[in-house]
# Entry
Amino acid sequence: MDSTRAPHRTGHLADGREILYYDDPSSGLRPEPPPDRRDPSSAPAPAELRRDPLVDEWVIVATHRQARTFLPPTSDCPLCPSHGDVLTEIPASDYDVVVFENRFPSLPAAAPGEAPAGRCEVICYSSDHDASFATLSDERLGTIAGALAERSEALRADPGVASVFCFENRGEQIGVTLHHPHGQIYAYPFIPPRAERMLAASAAHAERSGSCLACDLLADELADGRRIVAARGTAVAYVPSAARWPYEIHVVPRRHVRDLASLDGAERDELVRLQADALYRLDGLFEAPVPYIAGWLQAPAHEAGDLHLRMQIVSPQRDVGRLKYLAGSEAAMGAFINDVLPEDAADRLRNASPRPAG
Ligand SMILES: [Zn+2]
Ligand SMILES: [Zn+2]
# Structure
């Protein structure tokens, strides 16, 4: 295994959930974290998958999530390190990056011989409650990207896992329940509908032209130039011509790779820095933290189709103080209406202040 990606410490929380610590190179190896001193929490009722026959898609029913911690005060944040008698999800008194199994998973855990199972993990980006992804150090971004690559690879190895999705939701406006900077890793036991559509479009294009759809689209975007936000040595950020959201930015590696684990360390670093740069520019446009969803679309597990790795950032912020909501056409029919011209969005983002290096 790539030594820059492997967790530095692994352990278990009081209720048996796994926890993995990843340290920045400059931190050296942090001391062995203490054991979780909390009483084991009772396992929540498992989530359930139901097949909607009307559209032939899976729906996840997870009623226990109603009991999730909801916007706690900073002093009760479950993602801050433990200190004194305040015992959180992370027993260590400090950490760089930590991954653990979600206490309130959206996917049912493995049960032998039963319906498909998955796994939900939380990744904390920093022990600093007030940090944000876009302003983390280059070194930390690399540690996060390495951890996501390692987790994606480990989860994909499970024969029951069909697709791994790493993402961050930010902003109360889109339903975030914890402000501490963190992302999530979903190992789905099925291929989610949007990934299925992308795989089908990609396979049809390959059949017609013999080449990768995403590679061809990227070449077209670079030749056209109007929607490019920033282009680096091995990675490019652009606004897709048919963006669904007021601000939508895709960050892709120039090289055709299926997933985060297929990148070398330097490529992964450049890609994740460009992601942070795109998010920094987005905040800069509105001079405030903008709500967003940032997710890595990776090819499915077990070679079930090919897909070019893509970071997709979408924000419902359409103007200062104004959000786009999914209403009739989008929510009921899946047909998006975008109020912002993608070329204008790209122009604004291109001219916004870039993220300072470091
Ligand atoms: Zn916190
Ligand atoms: Zn490609």
Summary: The chain has a mean pLDDT of 92. The chain is about 25% helix and 20% strand.
